[in-house]
Amino acid sequence: MNDFALSQAPLIVGFAVLMFLASFRHSRKENASASIALVALGLTAWLMWVKLPPGAEYFGGAIRVTLAGKLLAWLCLAFTAMAMLLSEGYLEKVRIHPADWRMVVLAMGLGMTSLCLAGDLATLFVAYELVSIPSYVLAGFNHRDPRSNEAGMKYLLLGVFTSVLFLLGISFLYGATGEIDLIAIRDSLLRAAENGAVADLTLAKLSLAFILGALLFKVGAAPFHAWIPDVYQGSNMASLGIISSPVKVAVFGMMAMLLWGPYLALAEIWKPALLIAALASAVLGNLQAMLQTNLKRLIAYSAVVNAGFILLCIFLDSVPATVFYLGVYGITTLGAWAALMAMGTRNADVDEIADLAGMGKRRKWLALGFTVILLSYAGIPPTAGFAAKFGMALEALKPEAALPRTALFVVSVSVIAGLVSFYYYFQIVRAMWLQAPPRNAGEVGCPGQGWNYALALVLSLAGIIALGLLMRLPG
Predict the structure, then answer these.
(1) Residue 260 domain boundaries
(2) Domain count of the chain?
């Protein structure tokens, strides 16, 4: 057994054990599913960290370890474990069988790690589907809730269409180069660009259009973002912890790997496309977020805005800025879900901004933690959100970047449009601290059902403060 297979073995064994436990309905053994899943994720993260050195290749190059890919894979596992922690107690509240849900998440964990370390087209597509299909399942997992059914169906139908686009893109890319190895494809396209091989480059450009469209949909970047508020609103918060954090890290990592690698020769095409998507995400995401009163929809449009900033990091060819921003966004988003889960009652989640009225008086420390998370979303110093946005802007202003005026314009608009976010984040802060509690205050924001919400929120806040104060962006 090679080291990569060894590192993934805990996920496979954990999946098999949970499948066995899932057959024992109403059994106390099912309550152990969280511990089993966390141990599997922890062992995989540890084995990947110590056993997979950068530069190593496995299965004939199907898996290729890079430092950036290894960091992103580790972040995916860490964020998945944090989301798994949040699911304890919450799944029973929304009437979801814990072992079933966690079994799906472990399968997705295997796909996310493979996606970050894929070395050829076959592995890339299998890993992409191993992330996508469980995502559709998680979005519609609560079959008793009509909103969950709607969210899962919308995500499935649109996701299948984008999977077809992704597969078409891979097919055209193979047709253009005759290679499936990503490094060989990069070298082949660079030679074609030097030699003026028009036919090969035309096929490669078609493949780029298909793949880029599929990935922009998957990360929720404008103008392919229409699905994201509906799916967020209909999904339960435990599933959103997976869909909105580790999945985003894995797919953005794959996008960066493809654009900086196989499609390096076509940078004059994909870089303007990223600028357009980043500009649209900044403008549309912020303007549409201003109209929201539903908390999940507001966070969904916030995800669109942050997707624009991550696209700018990829445009700048900055590995440190991209990895740093993905890490900051992932931990901030999980902290937001932890706070909202803790604010819910034992029978229902908080849904509207108005549900948080007076939370600062009834749950002071919880409201304070959520306020810090919102400040990080808005990019207020000294939070990690500010450090991530500042790091992107710093990379753009470096003399060696030599950005054209169009790119500087998009960066400026993105930063300025971010000021609009102060308005809708402040609506939440105002509700918590400045509005009077509703008459049924005893039914809103009752104490959390477990220690896990508090622990996840503390870990998120520690990361936000530490990354904002202590970390300096490399490079």
Answers:
(1) 3-469
(2) 1
